Amino acid sequence: MASIRERVRADGGITYTVLWREDGKQPSESFDDPVQAEAFKLLVEANGGRAPAGWIRGHGFVDPSTAAVVADAPITFRDWARRVINSRTGVESRTRSDYLRDAERWLFPTFGEANVRVNDTIDTEAVRLWLVRMESATYVKGKNPDGTPRIKTVSPKTVRNVHGLLSSILQAAVDHDPQIRTRNPCVGITLPRVDDEIEDEATFLTPDEVALFISCFNRRTDQLASTIAYGTGVRYGELTALQPQDRVKLGHRPAVRIQRAWKRRDDGTYYMGAPKSKRSRRTLTVTSTVDDALDELSDMAAGRQGDPIGKRRRLLLVDTAGNRLHYSSFGDRWDRALQQALREGLDKEPTPHDLRHSHAAALISAGTPLPAIQRRLGHESIQTTVDTYGHLLPDIDDVMLAAVEATLTGIGTPQLRLFAA
């Protein structure tokens, strides 16, 4: 495999150097254009990890026709997909890892060995047949209350997301210079609807059900964490990154600043960075109950100051060793609380993330406008809020029609005012 290394020159420009292993040495070739560097990298890999025939270092091909012959070498979808995903800019390492995981799980078994250069090996019919199989595919996610594996069917949303990944990979081959294939078979294909799937994916708890669930935790810190999660709607990575200094005031009201979150590197380790998006960096007013929970956790954090880790991070939520509260550790205790809640009459099986959904549902039931909910949850786009929670909005057709009718008939509301141009 070849790689591309970027180096900033003294004049501010960037040099793109292609590196590869050949006969125990590491040859290289430099370019000023990233597209040319990527094209040469493709040629090296298509030629078995060797410089393409006819290439003179620093000069290019001595015979231009040689490049055309080498450029016709097969490129497997597996290799091309990894190359496209790994070279994407503007995405976090966790997102890139998720793309690679989805490609390994859902795309490579069908398309992995297909030659991307040949349109007929991945055509519209092949994509449609793959979609049919995807719509009935299953996977294991967690365990049932009796300990058996929980088998789930791939949701329409996941099918659409993976189809989008497939389409972007093939479109990159169409847009590549030189062009690798001439068409993208994913364009124009009808995808499964997602209108009715949200209720199946998200579990919404009523305030009484939240209170019941919280009471089923044995640890006080877990009760406090769940109280804050439900009371603010923050994500788990944001919740577990909170520190005492994040407690602030907005006027006379208590509030909490969301300014950092835990992120996962490609190697599985975690680091603290900025929240998920620009809008995720926000300040949220909180109720007195949530403020009391934050106060209690702050007191616990102050008591850990003698611990080196506590001094360095002063996180509100930590494990028994004073480190980041790992999701799996909290999840194990969540599952035990769930079993207790089920014994006490709860007829739902929520996940920790469902506290965020339940927070949004409580705001909607109180008549909170969706743009305000978008800001509170830190959604980058209002469309995300609408797609996730729009089905919870009350039916207001009668109200709207009554308002229109009153305007037209003049009964109940003032007549429309006409303004001069």
From TrEMBL:
<dbReference type="GO" id="GO:0015074">
    <property type="term" value="P:DNA integration"/>
</dbReference>
<keyword id="KW-0233">DNA recombination</keyword>
<dbReference type="InterPro" id="IPR002104">
    <property type="entry name" value="Integrase_catalytic"/>
</dbReference>
<dbReference type="GO" id="GO:0006310">
    <property type="term" value="P:DNA recombination"/>
</dbReference>
<dbReference type="GO" id="GO:0003677">
    <property type="term" value="F:DNA binding"/>
</dbReference>
<comment type="similarity">
    <text>Belongs to the 'phage' integrase family.</text>
</comment>
<dbReference type="InterPro" id="IPR050090">
    <property type="entry name" value="Tyrosine_recombinase_XerCD"/>
</dbReference>
<dbReference type="InterPro" id="IPR010998">
    <property type="entry name" value="Integrase_recombinase_N"/>
</dbReference>
<keyword id="KW-0238">DNA-binding</keyword>
<dbReference type="InterPro" id="IPR013762">
    <property type="entry name" value="Integrase-like_cat_sf"/>
</dbReference>
<feature type="domain" description="Tyr recombinase">
    <location>
        <begin position="200"/>
        <end position="406"/>
    </location>
</feature>
<protein>
    <submittedName>
        <fullName>Site-specific integrase</fullName>
    </submittedName>
</protein>
<dbReference type="Pfam" id="PF00589">
    <property type="entry name" value="Phage_integrase"/>
</dbReference>
<dbReference type="InterPro" id="IPR011010">
    <property type="entry name" value="DNA_brk_join_enz"/>
</dbReference>
